[in-house]
């Protein structure tokens, strides 16, 4: 599942939770999707931070 699809499904479940509530299966799915999203976000952030170069460290 792509990140866009994951976010879309999380939002669908959030709207349903507000409107009528979620079943146990839907709650479990929502929690797994949230974990997946957070894990992907952390990976992306780590990748960005790993690619930062400090100007001070550059040879002159």
Biggest beta sheet attributes: none
The third-level CATH topology is Helix Hairpins
Structure classification: mainly alpha
**How large is the radius of gyration?**
18 Å
Number of helices: 2
Strand residue content: under 5%
Mind explaining what this structure looks like?
The chain is mainly α and 60 residues long. It has one domain (3-52): Helix hairpin bin (Helix Hairpins). It is built from two helices and no strands. α1 runs antiparallel to α2. The longest helix has 27 residues, at 24-50. The protein is rod-shaped and about 65 Å long. The termini are far apart. The model has no long low-confidence stretch (mean pLDDT 92).
What's this model, at a glance?
With 60 residues, the chain is an all-alpha fold.
